[in-house]
Recover the amino acids of this structure.
């Protein structure tokens, strides 16, 4: 399961990097066409907005996979190891529930409705449903990454009952307190 997650994360990273590079080129062309050529491109702002949407949503899935999302680590690290484990599992369950309901289900409904409505973007003429596909795709990745994290946390062989980004000196003092309490 870990190899699958790492492979999916790498594919997502390459996609986000490619989209970000395209975003930089599109914005640069928009600036050049406006200020150097004095003939502004009509499509650059629209495409840049769509690329930024995809980069943000897929980038959030990459961040979740790499555990680089925001968190209140200090308070979590003060908890007893069993309470910390329970809290980490509950947080992942909430992430999976939100991603399933809002992003996958809600995003799929949004994509379906806009494709049926035939809504097109003004400058590029792209169907808006394709632009909105970023939400359910990102949600699916978040669900997969969240489920993998839950399984890893609950696996007795994982040894993942660790402090969340805890500095070494605090981790050492926490371990000594745990040993004393036993």
């Amino acid at each position: 399961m870990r190899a699958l997650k790492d492979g999916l994360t790498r594919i997502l990273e390459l996609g986000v990097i490619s989209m970000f590079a395209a975003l930089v080129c599109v914005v640069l062309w928009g600036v050049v066409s406006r200020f150097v050529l004095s003939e502004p491109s009509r499509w650059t702002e629209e495409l840049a907005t769509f690329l930024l949407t995809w980069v943000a949503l897929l980038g959030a899935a990459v961040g979740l996979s790499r555990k680089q999302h925001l968190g209140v680590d200090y308070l979590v690290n003060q908890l007893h190891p069993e309470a910390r484990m329970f809290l980490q599992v509950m947080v992942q369950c909430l992430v999976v529930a939100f991603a399933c309901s809002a992003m996958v289900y809600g995003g799929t409904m949004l994509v379906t409705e806009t494709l049926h409505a035939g809504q097109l973007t003004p400058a590029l003429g792209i169907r808006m449903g394709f632009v909105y596909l970023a939400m359910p795709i990102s949600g699916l990745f978040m669900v997969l990454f969240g489920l993998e994290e839950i399984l890893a946390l609950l696996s007795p062989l994982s040894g993942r009952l660790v402090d969340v980004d805890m500095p070494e000196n605090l981790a050492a003092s926490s371990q000594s307190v745990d040993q004393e309490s036993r």
Observations:
- Residues 26 and 47 are 7 Å apart (CA to CA).
- The radius of gyration is 21 Å.
